[in-house]
Amino acid sequence: MKIGLLGHGVVGSGVTAITDSCAVKKVRRLEVSRILVKDEWEMTDPRCTTNVEDILSDPEIEIVAECMGGIEPAHTFVRRALESGKHVVTSNKKMFAAYCGELFELAKENGVSIRYEASCGGGIPWISNLTRIRRLEPVTSFRGIFNGTTNYILSRMARTGSDFAQNLAEAQKLGYAEKDPTDDIAGYDVRYKTAITAMKAFGAIVNAEEIPTLGIADVSADDIRWASENGYVLKLFGAGRNLDDGVSLWVMPVMTGDQQVFAHITDNFNAVESESPTLGPAMFVGQGAGSLPTAHAVVQDLLDIYQDQDAEAAYAERKTVNNDTVCARFYVRTAKPEAFADVCETGIGNGAFLTKELPLSELLAMMKGCGDEHVFAAMVME
Predict the structure, then answer these.
(1) Which residues does 161 contact at the CB level (< 8 Å), separation at least 6?
(2) Which residues are catalytic?
(3) How confident is the model at residue 309 (pLDDT cuts 50, 70, 90)?
(4) Is 171 left (phi over 0), alpha (psi -120 to 50) or beta?
(5) Which residues contact 181 (CB under 8 A, 6 or more apart)?
(6) What pLDDT shows up at residue 313?
(7) Contact status, residue 36 vs residue 4, Cβ threshold 8 Å
(8) Mean pLDDT along residues 112-132
(9) CB atoms inside a 10 Å sphere around CB 145
(10) What is the pTM (predicted TM-score) of this model?
(11) Average pLDDT of the residues in 101-130
(12) I need a surface site. Which of 38, 120, 133, 220 has the fewest CB within 10 A?
């Protein structure tokens, strides 16, 4: 089966590394025949081309693997591939979170499939396991660490007592964080993955921008130290719950009790947990990013298409995000603590305090109106 690969960067090069060298017979039958690159200086392989038509117009290419990232031109290329009757595998969380409903419809109309395991959780088989759970029963909720970059930064801060900027620079040096790390540290990467997970777990297509999202850009060494001294570990979570009238979805830092499994997930690892009636909590842990782990998920999707396994039709509907039922205590640090006087339960000092239990929506409204653009907040989860 011939494959057209869109993009030959971190993930795309990992795909060819696996398919070109793997000794497993089924994988050897997957032939990457053409590779789209952006510039001529990237043409380091005889299969490379800068003309997408060499892939989209080739009748012998049956699958397009999109590993470009970004919204455009990835979205246009994937649309055209589906319209041409080609299966699609994508690792592109940002594009897929925005257009999954449209792309599923196109796949259905053209009798092909679109797969996206690598878009959410890197090498963890998160999407496929949600599929297996939903064959028997509904998934009621999920939560966890979806981003390896932020988990690396927070783990290093906890281990060394160093500050955020120093560990962000180290993550960039190691290739865990991009030159522009905004998607990771602002929580947007987790927001895309939370939206994709909601679609798979709950059958809910949501507008990702409706998901309230707080990142870690303003975390300090003092926040990490207080957490450690009080039996907590700070992590960035994405979470969701299925509701009768929509879905609850949120992204924010969480102070999880140090007895929780999540507290012991370190460095660039991810850990995500689903909940369902008879299986109960099921946790999946692994490399959440990186060339070969993410490429592993892409190749698994390619094999599923080749073997026609786990063929799925997307039965999803558009739903609204409703967080009215989300209540918790929160750790807050701000230069404007007086703005939170009505909800402060325990003062910590230096503008930090614990709130009484209150709705997440109330906290977010107070943060927006407090006049401090660097206010930091984390949910306290025992």
Answers:
(1) 221, 224, 225
(2) 193
(3) low
(4) alpha
(5) 149, 168, 171, 172
(6) 47
(7) yes
(8) 90
(9) 25
(10) 0.92
(11) 92
(12) 38
Q: Measured between alpha carbons, how far is 277 from 243 in angstroms, rounded to an integer? A: 15
Other CB atoms within 10 A of residue 303 CB: 16
What per-residue confidence (pLDDT) applies to 315? 64
What does the block give as tokens for 158? 């906890």
pLDDT tens, residue by residue, 330-355: 999 999 999 999 999 999 988 999 99
Residue 126 and residue 98 in contact, taking contact as beta carbons nearer than 8 Å: no
Q: In 3-state terms, what secondary structure has residue 133?
A: helix
Q: What is the pLDDT of residue 50?
A: 97
Instruction: Give the integer Cα–Cα distance in Å for 92 and 119.
Output: 5
Q: Which residues contact 124 (CB under 8 A, 6 or more apart)?
A: 270, 272, 284, 285, 286, 287, 288, 297
Question: Is the separation of the CB atoms in 38 and 9 below 8 Å?
Answer: no
- Which one-letter DSSP state was computed for residue 356? P
- Phi, psi of 106, deg, nearest 5: -65, -40
Peptide bond between residue 181 and the one before it cis (omega within 30 degrees of 0): no
**Domains of the chain, earliest start first:** 2-122+292-318 (3.40.50.720), 138-286 (3.30.360.10)
DSSP of 208-270:
GGGS-B--STT--HHHHHHHHHTTEEEEEEEEEEEETTEEEEEEEEEEEETTSGGGG--TTEE
Tell me the two tokens of residue 61: 């290419």
Q: Mean pLDDT score of the chain, rounded to an integer?
A: 93
- pLDDT bin (cut points 50, 70, 90) of residue 291 is confident
